[in-house]
């Protein structure tokens, strides 16, 4: 069996056992659903589904649920999209009316160019890319060393890494801030540089946990085979392990980018210069300074990328979210 | 040697930005630090100072209230929705996507948007909707009594989708044979939910409960951006107090008090989780 086939099998078909490793189960491609994903029955029995009264009770309650979900989940976003292109006066006087006096598209370009949302947008992107790269670098190299090379002291390092999961982030707030102010070895404050956000993002124990679990479940025979073929650890890492790890790298990437987009307090503390701030930090200070319609346009632009990413990578998002619970559980 | 090369990024990043700061937090909580003169050991002075701060107990009460309201609003709801959604035959993906959508909205945008919705004037968004059903305009975040519930409402909206997805994943793990067996015993739908579904979800339910408490005890964004602790300190939380000690002090950061309070919070949460898992261990074992 070739490496490629083994990988696909491992990734695509974790088998029906409930004890299947969480990470491989998550890596399943969307189209091939195992019976586990869509059981042929749930709480309501197939017999009950055939009884009209029960069938219609469920159908109606699902209909009501769908309407509620649309109002609560989609409603605020639709309102934001509408109000982003509605003149201020209309939004203030009658916030629930749909374009009572027409559409004003100029708010979007005003927000992007004059208010500088375009700059903040690129900053956010830059922060996300850097955090993503550092997280991937730390997680893959560290995970490779801990799960595959397995040095003697690996267990201690692993314990120290996982131990940080139990420390609430707030404990780090002040000392981390002072570290950024006076970093070791570098004789220069990192305040207002992206390193202040990128580097601490790399210290993510959850990533290490995910990657070491995934690597631990890769078949070790492949590594032995690669070694006998004369592959050194670097080649093993780059040409064997990384290509096999695409699913888990995808999950970490989604988490990394979304977190960079979401983060507020930390970038707020270390990026004081508006020129380098991401959207999340800049938006609250705009509130008082600009017209309401332009402000709402800025909010709408800031929401666009995460929502579009979600719509495109829906399956991966939802599996990652479920995984969050599975790992914590 | 190669091992070390591969471990280097992890060791540097965790060493400098995680392990050292954690140790420093403990050290700084018993020191007086002002970044100008060398730090001096002051014993438990910082802790005493925190306990003597009249805002401390206000913050503890408010944080407790937030956590409690978040449990009442936000703990049963995702479970009920997930159980309902798990029975959807067609278009389940649409239901999950709609439920998860608020989680995707950047939290800052969500808070700022809701802040506008909460406009207390009769033409505010929520007040307009209330007017349709004949309810008088509400003060929302402008009033000390209604401010905290308003914050919790937004926080629940923003977080419920994530929990729903976790429950939905757990629900697919319930073996259909258990329902078959329950039906042989003549169980109704409610009995099946009560005697099969909920016990099967017990493990996940117990974990999401404590994780939610740990999360809501550290609430910062909502009180900071909605009300900045007001009105009349009704929404000052523990994290806000830490932030104020460290970064909003006109006399320079009171890093000692800030780290002391964060250590107190971490210790409280550690003890709480320990006791929680001790008590619930006997329930979650089969």
Short description:
By secondary structure, chain A is an all-alpha fold. Chain A has a domain at 115-286: MetI-like fold (Orthogonal Bundle). Chain A has helices spanning 3-12, 22-26, 46-49, 52-84, 88-93, 106-114, 117-149, 154-163, 169-181, 195-202, 205-216, 220-228, 233-244, 246-262, 265-270, 279-286, 292-312, 314-328.
- How is the CATH topology of the domain at 115-286 in chain A named? MetI-like fold
**Largest sheet, strands/sense/barrel of chain A:** none
Give the N-terminus to C-terminus distance of chain B in angstroms: 46 Å
Radius of gyration of chain A from CA coordinates: 25 Å
Tell me the name of the CATH homologous superfamily of the domain at 115-286 in chain A.
Answer: MetI-like
Helix content of chain A: over 70%
Helix content bin of chain B = over 70%
Structural class of chain B: mainly alpha
Arithmetic mean pLDDT of chain A = 83
The appropriate CATH architecture of the domain at 115-286 in chain A is: Orthogonal Bundle
- Which pair has the most extensive contact? A-B, 105 and 103 residues
Based on the structure, what is the oligomeric state of the protein chains? heterodimer
Tally the helices of chain B.
Answer: 13
DSSP strand (E) fraction of chain B?
under 5%
Radius of gyration of chain B: 23 Å
Question: What overall geometry of chain A do the principal axes of the alpha carbons give?
Answer: flat
CATH superfamily caption of the domain at 43-91 and 164-284 in chain B = MetI-like
Low-confidence parts of chain A lasting 5 or more residues at pLDDT below 50? 1-38
């Amino acid at each position: 069996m070739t490496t490629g086939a083994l990988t696909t099998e491992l990734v695509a078909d974790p088998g029906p056992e409930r004890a299947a490793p969480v990470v491989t189960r998550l890596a399943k491609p969307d189209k091939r659903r195992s019976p586990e994903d869509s059981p042929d029955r749930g709480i309501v029995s197939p017999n009950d589904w055939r009884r009209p009264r029960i069938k219609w009770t469920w159908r109606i309650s699902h209909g009501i649920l769908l309407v509620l979900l649309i109002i609560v989940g989609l409603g605020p976003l639709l309102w934001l999209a509408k109000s982003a292109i509605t003149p201020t006066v209309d939004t203030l006087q009658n916030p629930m009316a749909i374009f009572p006096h027409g559409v004003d598209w100029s708010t979007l370009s005003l927000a992007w160019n004059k208010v500088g949302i375009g700059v903040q947008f690129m900053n956010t992107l830059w922060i996300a890319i850097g955090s993503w790269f550092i997280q991937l670098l730390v997680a893959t190299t560290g995970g490779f060393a801990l799960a595959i090379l397995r040095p003697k002291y690996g267990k201690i390092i692993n314990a120290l890494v996982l131990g940080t999961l139990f420390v609430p982030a707030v404990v780090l707030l002040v000392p981390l801030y002072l570290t950024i102010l006076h970093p070791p070895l570098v004789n220069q404050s990192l305040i207002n540089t992206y390193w202040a956000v990128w580097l601490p993002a790399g210290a993510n124990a959850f990533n290490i946990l995910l990657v070491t679990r995934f690597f631990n479940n890769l078949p070790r025979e492949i590594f032995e085979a690669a070694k006998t073929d004369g592959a050194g650890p670097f080649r093993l890492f780059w040409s064997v392990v990384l290509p096999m790890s695409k699913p888990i790298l995808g999950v970490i990437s989604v988490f990394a980018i979304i977190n960079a987009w979401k983060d507020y307090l930390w970038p707020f503390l270390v990026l004081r210069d508006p020129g380098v701030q991401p959207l999340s930090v800049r938006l609250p200070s705009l509130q008082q300074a600009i017209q309401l319609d332009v402000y709402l346009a800025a909010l709408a632009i800031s929401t666009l990328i995460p929502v579009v990413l979600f719509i495109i990578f829906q399956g991966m998002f939802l599996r990652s979210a479920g995984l969050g619970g599975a790992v914590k559980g | 040697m190669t091992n070390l090369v591969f471990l280097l990024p992890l060791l540097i990043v965790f060493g400098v930005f995680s392990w050292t700061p954690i140790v420093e937090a403990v050290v700084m909580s018993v020191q007086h630090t002002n970044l100008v003169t060398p730090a001096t050991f002051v014993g438990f002075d910082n802790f005493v100072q925190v306990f003597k701060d009249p805002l401390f107990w206000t913050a503890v009460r408010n944080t407790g209230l937030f956590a409690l309201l978040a449990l009442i609003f936000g703990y049963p709801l995702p479970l009920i929705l997930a159980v309902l959604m798990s029975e959807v035959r067609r278009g389940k993906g649409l239901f999950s996507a709609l439920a998860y959508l608020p989680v995707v909205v950047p939290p800052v945008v969500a808070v700022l948007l809701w802040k506008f919705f909460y406009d207390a004037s009769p033409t505010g968004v929520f007040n307009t909707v209330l007017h349709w059903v004949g309810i008088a305009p509400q003060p929302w975040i402008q009033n000390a009594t209604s401010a905290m519930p308003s914050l919790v409402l937004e926080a629940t909206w923003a977080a419920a989708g994530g929990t729903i997805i976790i429950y939905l994943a757990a629900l697919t793990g319930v073996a259909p044979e258990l329902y078959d067996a329950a039906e042989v015993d003549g169980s109704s739908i409610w009995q099946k939910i009560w005697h099969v579904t909920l016990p099967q979800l017990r493990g996940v339910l117990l974990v999401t409960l404590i994780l939610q408490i740990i999360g809501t005890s550290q609430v910062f964004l909502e009180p900071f951006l909605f009300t900045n602790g007001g009105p009349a300190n009704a929404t000052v939380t523990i994290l806000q107090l830490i932030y104020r000690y460290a970064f909003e002090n006109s006399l320079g950061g009171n890093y000692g008090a800030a780290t002391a309070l964060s250590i107190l919070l971490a210790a409280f949460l550690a003890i709480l989780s320990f006791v929680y898992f001790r008590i619930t261990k006997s329930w979650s074992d089969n």
